Amino acid sequence: MADLIRNLILAGLGITSITKEKAEKLVKDLIKEGKLSETEEAKFIKDIMKKSEKIGDNVDKKIEEMVEKTLKKLNIPTRKDLDDIKQKLDKLVKQKTNKS
Questions:
Q1: How far is it, in rounded angstroms, from Cα 15 to Cα 53?
Q2: Number of domains in the chain
Q3: CA–CA separation, 89 vs 74, rounded Å?
Q4: What angle in degrees, to the nearest 10, is found between the helix axes of 38-73 and 2-32?
């Protein structure tokens, strides 16, 4: 389970770094071919990196959803579940203390 999550995270990170490398190579090739001017280079890379970040954010969101779904299937409490239990327990302890 931990390996799956780790591999998914590494895959997400790989997508964004590969995109940057490919973007830079693509821009250099386009400049050599005369299809893109050097003054457009920075803007073009910036646009591609914004799209790459968006893809990375989507990957992160999908990973979070998948982890949450897996935790529920395995009946493992999430951090939120544990925080909710702690708040309820604190409330009960406080009520009991006030009655004593």
A1: 10
A2: 1
A3: 24
A4: 170
* Structure tokens given for 37: 């001017």
Residue 90, token pair as written in the block: 């604190």
pTM, two decimals, is: 0.47
- Total residue length of the chain: 100
Task: Decide: helix, strand or coil at residue 4.
Answer: helix
Which residues, other chains included, contact 58 with Cβ-Cβ below 8 Å and sequence gap of 6+?
A: none
Structure confidence by residue, pLDDT tens digits, 17-66: 666 777 778 778 878 888 778 887 778 777 777 777 777 788 888 888 88
Q: What share of the chain in percent tops pLDDT 70?
A: 80
Q: What domain range includes position 14?
A: 2-99
